[in-house]
Amino acid sequence: MANETLFRGLSIRIVAFAIAILVLSLAGLSYATYDVFDRQAAAELDRKAAAVADLIANRVGRALDLGVPFDQLVGVEEFLGDVIQDQPEFASVALADAAGREVYRKDRPRRQGDVRVQSWPVTARGAAAGAVLIGVDSAALNERLVGIAFDVGVTLLVSALISLEVLLVLIAVSLTIPVGTLVTLMNRVAGGDFSRRVDDRARDQVGRLTAAFNSAIERVNREYRAALDRALSAGADAAAWGAELSRRFVFAPAAGAEPFAPQSVLFIRLPLFLFFFGSELPRSFLPILAKELHAASGPTPAWLAAVPGGDWLAQAYAAIPAEVLVALPLSAYLLGIALFSPVAGRLAAARGSRTLFSIGVVPAVAGYVLTFLADSLPELILWRTVNALGFAFVSIAALDHISAVTTPTTRAQGMAAYLAAYVSAGVCGTAIGAILADRIGFPPVFLLSAVFTLGSAVLLWILTPATPHRDAAPARKAGGGSMLRLLATPRFLGLLLCAGIPMQVIQSGFLFYYAPLLLQELGNRQAVIGRVLMIYFLLVIVFNEVLARWADGGQRHGKAVVIGLGLSGCAAAAVGLWTDTWAAAGSVAAIGVAWAFSFSAQGALLLRMGEGRLAGVPPAVAIGFYRLAERCGAMVAPVLMSLMITHMGFADTALITGVGIAICAVLFALQMAALPVTDSTVPETSR
Amino acid sequence: MKALAFRALLGVLLLAGVNAGALAATAKPKTVYIMTFRGCEEVCTGFRDYLERQGEAVEFVIRDAESSLARVADFVAEAKATRPDLVVTWGTGVTLAAVGPYDAVDPARHITDIPVVYLFVGNPTEAKIARSTTASGRPNVAGANTTVSFEAQYNTMLSYRPVKRVGFVYNADEPAAAVQAQTALEQFRARGVEVVEERLPAGADGKPTPESFAPAMARVRERQAEMLYYVGSSFILANIEAFSRAALDQKLPAFTSFELPFRKGGALLGLVSPLRSVGQIAGYQAAQVLFAGKPPGELPTPSLTRFTVLINMQAARELALWPPMRLLQFAEVAP
Fold first, then answer.
1. Over 60: is that where the pLDDT of B12 sits?
2. How far is the C-alpha of A522 from the C-alpha of A580, rounded, in Å?
3. A281 near A433, Cβ under 8 Å?
């Protein structure tokens, strides 16, 4: 096991320095580009206004030439409306007669502040006949510029995060891990153990260092064997000396020193990041895509009935209310993960995590490609389930790998690496997926997901050494009996019902389903939706560690859960009261913080309850059940949200959800007061 | 060496060119026998130009009935004697005289064993020239649908001005006109538009006279029709100038889906099949028969889908009914 903490200082300095330089230079470049764009956009807008005015003057001039009197032109407003229809930069367009009197005028329905009016002449029969007046809306231009600035900023942030991921792994693989291995082996040498050499074929400085070490080890072993041979042939005394030597030191067998293969969670981090990145790309538009596909394919897509035996399937499909159907792509995905995870667990034990990861990539890629081709809602639901199979395999493979290469004391660090990969992929994938969707449409983004997923498999084979040997005993099987016993435990049940499930409703229902739909309803571009959802992941990254430490520090896990619930409730209710984009963004941010408060605290609470308060079920097993039950909540949440949105509208849905969660916060606070959780075992964080 | 090869190649090419030319010159050109009603006008030239551009040798024999259907019998006899590769008939009258209605074909008077493509037939199924709108249903006959769809006509009228009541003034004595009036009437009523009908009264010789136009228009105007819908008929077409004058005198804007009433008369608005396109689409069918050797009866009947909006500014000025800006953008305007 390489000592990862040893070179942490160095690698942090290198990474921080590299990223600082990258961000600064990118920021400078972006600013320069933006500045050029800013100036050009204004000039471009003037040119566009001139072109539009020219077109209008031309057509009006022709009508006047044909003998239509200026004040009797027909349908001018409609015509002007057509011309500026898709041009939000033009607030108004008007037509004035030769005397300068404004006769016709068309305004955009949504006018914003500062409007600058420009005028172009209209000529007919060789004489001035009037003027075209165009009101250029500077606010609309600014809005567009701000949007671009945000896109640039998001891209900057994402490139910094991706560089961080890549650099961390690069430094670990080429420096930290081999040097750590060397340190370990040199310590062994200091203790008299010459039996291991470093398994490293790198050609760089570190590689030469390890090669030097290896040759030193070989030399020692060679000399030892030669000395031993000489001693054996020299006689009994010398043989006794040799035996004494091998008692005090450990030498390699005659076949040569055994290679020492380092294991680290860092090997799997980059492939995992890429895989999660691919799966997060469609995050911000999936509910919108589901709605669009449903609208396009109608209550029963024709192909469904054409499938052999699809008749009853089509009938069943038609019988499901539309609100439930459009939420199914999200729910089916979560259900798929829940169903396939146990299978994946058994496969991991039989085949090893690297193979399982590679197997999982196949359905994941297939799911993305098929989703790209899908043009009806049932297809989307089906292919999302195929994706879920891939996700289940890969995530279980990753967790299996982590538990294989970590010891109980470093397991929390391993889990933290897994979560970090997931959350930073969440930031990057959600934002980039949305920006791309704005430019290339929804379906092609799935192809990109497929590419990243394939890339993750390739990286896995390059980076990860062969699957480490698993000596850990398979996880203890716990039957349904312990589940029932757990559910009969007031503390467990209270935590699950008042905290676990409500937090899933907030995440999977409110955040991932309701928020994208609301933001779209409010007229936002997809990039804005992605940007808003990104805030959630970003705040989880920023606050997760800090808040978990705060909760651990003063045994404040109960408080942390209550605060998380309360914050989530207020956040949702606020969207109900002020149903606009800013409220939604603030709410998403608050949910990010709330999640950081409560996620690891829930696990910690379960651990602190201990077997005694969990009906004799070991806390680790109880956490497994807890996560499973939570997932059921997560599956139902999108459907629940969809039904509520249809029947009571966006505002009331948010308000009721918020109030409901706030009530849960109060109930859980009461539970903590009535049934306090005091330490019964040594607390261990579950991050 | 290179130069030699080049020269050899050039020689081969030249020879090939000469041979191809000789072959083209010796290959027997296809003969197309065109029966027109009043000479080879725009539809007929559109047809000829299309066929000539196909790059095959075609010889045209053009006969002009000089507006007398009786002369078509002579053309039929000539065609039967000379056996051209294809007979083309212009208009409903000539076509019926040449091939007969499908339920009354007389092999003595009609062409039954030479391929026939008809041009410019307003309603081939109604005239019993074709059995359906998708195929002629007759082994030796093919042609295209070139009428403007009613939906398109209606939308064009509406885009000029809102219309709740239209007027028909027509000669009910002509069966084709009566059929067109009936069809249009049903279509208007289905869209909630009222129709004010005026049938022209028969004069002393049993035929209507142009003098009956003015009183008919006055009655239509009195009954508050907002637009006059032109119902085609030979009689009105023959007197189209007087007809249009009478409408304009009553401040009645007119709509037509035929090109001639627009060009010659003062109809305000038209939506027509461009005459050249009518000829071209028939030319396409003729090419299938002549060069691809397809039997006419097996050709599917194509339809024109692109029409031209026509606006007559003279009428617009007289009526002070100005065209909307949207329509002006893509209309063909007669100043």
1. no
2. 7
3. yes
Q: How far apart are the first and last CA of chain B?
A: 69
Which of A563, A561, A570, A600 has the alpha carbon at shortest distance from A588?
A570
Partner-chain contact A79 B313, CB within 8 Å: no
Given the structure tokens 């294809």, which residue do they identify?
Answer: B86
pLDDT of residue A480: 62
Q: B132-164 pLDDT, tens per residue?
A: 888 888 999 999 888 888 899 999 999 999 999
CB B272 within 8 Å of CB B256: yes
In order of A281, A331, A337, A638, A655, the CA distances from A509 in angstroms are 18, 10, 17, 4, 14
For chain A, residues with pLDDT lower than 50 are 1-4, 6, 469, 471-476, 680-687
Q: Report residue B293 as tokens.
A: 């050797």
The answer to whether the pTM exceeds 0.80 is no
Strands A127-137 and A90-97: antiparallel
3-state DSSP of B150-171 = HHHHHHHHHHHCCCCEEEEEEC
Cα–Cα distance for residue pair B12/B15, rounded to 1 Å: 5
Which among A60, A74, A78 has CB closest to B323?
Answer: A74
Confidence at residue A645, expressed as pLDDT on a 0 to 100 scale: 92
Nearest to A96 by CA among A115, A113, A73: A73
Tokens of A227: 């000395």
Helices and strands, counts by H and E, chain A: 23, 6
Axis crossing angle, helix A236-248 with helix A205-234, rounded to the nearest 10: 150
| pLDDT at res. A302 | 66
Which token pair is B45? 């030239």
A77 and B CB contact within 8 Å: no
Torsion of CA A605, A608, A613, A617, to 10 degrees: 90
How wide is the angle at C-alpha A488 spanned by C-alphas A483 and A491, nearest 5°?
100
Secondary structure letter of residue A500 according to DSSP: I
Comparing alpha-carbon positions, the chain A residue that sits nearest to B326 is: A79
What is the distance, to the nearest Å, from the Cα of residue B167 to the centroid of all Cα atoms in its chain?
A: 24
Instruction: Give the chain A residue nearest B319 (alpha carbons).
Output: A68
A350 touches chain B (CB under 8 A): no
Best probe of the B interface among A58, A66, A78, by most B CBs < 10 A, is A66
- Which candidate, A437, A454, A439, places its Cα nearest to that of A368? A454
Residues 6 or more apart in contact with residue B11 via CB below 8 angstroms: none
3-state secondary structure B207-254: CCCHHHHHHHHHHHHHCCCCEEECCCCHHHHHCHHHHHHHHHHCCCCE
pLDDT in tens, A481-523: 777 888 888 888 999 999 999 999 999 999 999 999 999 998 8
Q: Chain A residue closest to B313 (CA)? A: A66
Q: Closest CB to B322: pick one of A60, A62, A68.
A: A68
